[in-house]
Amino acid sequence: MRILAVGVATIDIVNTVGRYPPEDGEVRALEHHVSLGGNASNTLVVLSRLGHHCSLAGAIADDPGSRQILQQLQQHGVETHYLARHANSITPTSYITLSRQSGSRTIVHYRRLAEFGWRDFSRIATGQFDWIHFEGRNIPDLRRMMAALKARPEIACSLEVEKAREGIEELFPLTGLLLFSRGYARHQGFSEAASFLAGMRDQVTPGTTLACAWGEQGAWGMDGQGGLFHAPAFPPPRVVDTVGAGDVFNAGVIHGQAAGEALSGVLTRACRLAGEKCGRKGLT
Ligand code: ADP
After folding, report:
1. Could you tell me if the CB of 42 is within 6 A of ligand 1?
2. Which of 63, 118, 140, 267 has its CA 20 to 30 Å from the CA of residue 8?
3. How remote is the CA of residue 260 from the centroid of ligand 1, in Å?
4. Which atom, in ligand 1's list, is nearest to the CA of 233?
5. Mean pLDDT of 110-126
């Protein structure tokens, strides 16, 4: 399948520590690695490994970090043709502290780069793609992009809803697959996924598939007929790195949906893929 994802590419600088340091403290890292990050990029790297033809549409700076990003994307077989380059910008960077004691990851993100916008998107010949996946950010422009695709029902469309951004709910009727995060569900006042998904059903076009990952508890999903499914997590022998687990899960769901599999099987496969990832450093 030919897949385009609209979203960001970042550099992740990951330090593993024994336990998270107190404020104003100092601690030595046990491990350190630098890798490609960003939700859309991560999801594409996994989809590429699953055999799809992937292309990233996003903004990119013109600095050493951006060259590292280009190299990494190309190494993972992700096309970079539709990246919009911006001079005098800085590659978005996530400084991530992974705590071995708790398994948590604390992220400080720095960004000074324009968003990929409607004008960039309108230059893409979207007809060459079977599936377009959107990261839920830059909402006004995304609304135009997704509305334009509404007139092209032959192109499947998915939306990742990770953060509660103003107006993001207006995008829900514009897609056939919504991928929610636990953080978004909690922000809406829900402490578990099943009732959150049931509540979401009124906000989407009938027939839309919903999924919501919930860390060590696995994931829940609701198919187009309102059937609710749960898949447990697949814990690895040792949890090594959970950074990007949600992005891997999303790739698994897109892969399964595209193959026309039933949602229960799709969720199970996506959780297995994400669980395997948690057992190793980095994405692949
Ligand atoms: P995010 O990375 O966006 O915070 P989640 O924490 O919800 O996303 O994780 C996404 C998926 O990754 C979960 O549905 C689950 O299948 C898997 N996962 C996450 N943490 C673990 C874990 N500790 N053990 C096994 N699987 C996990």
Report:
1. no
2. 267
3. 23
4. 16
5. 96
Q: Which residues contact 133 (CB under 8 A, 6 or more apart)?
A: 3, 4, 5, 6, 7, 40, 43, 157, 158, 159, 160, 250, 254
Inter-residue contact 115 to 138 (CB < 8 Å): yes
Does the CB atom of residue 218 touch ligand 1 within 6 A? yes
Backbone angles phi, psi at 78, to 5 degrees: -95, 125
Query: Long-range contacts: 145-150, Cβ < 8 Å, 24+?
Result: 145/6, 145/118, 145/121, 146/171, 146/174, 146/175, 147/174, 148/121, 148/122, 149/174, 150/174
**18 contacts 54 by C-beta, under 8 angstroms:** no
Cα–Cα distances (Å) from 96 to 10, 22, 31, 244, in that order, read: 12, 15, 12, 11
Cα 111 to middle of ligand 1, angstroms: 25
Predicted confidence at residue 242, as pLDDT, reads: 86
- Cα of 97 vs centre of ligand 1, distance in Å, is 17
pLDDT tens-digit series, residues 265-275: 999 999 999 99
Average pLDDT over residues 2-30: 96
CATH code of the domain made up of 2-278:
3.40.1190.20
Residue whose C-alpha is closest to residue 148's, from 169, 125, 165, 167? 125
pTM: 0.95
- Tokens of residue 153, six digits: 């029902």
Tell me how far apart the 2 most distant CA atoms of the chain are, in Å.
Answer: 55
- The CA-based angle 46-6-199, given to 5 degrees, is 85
Per-residue confidence at 57, pLDDT binned at 50, 70, 90?
very high
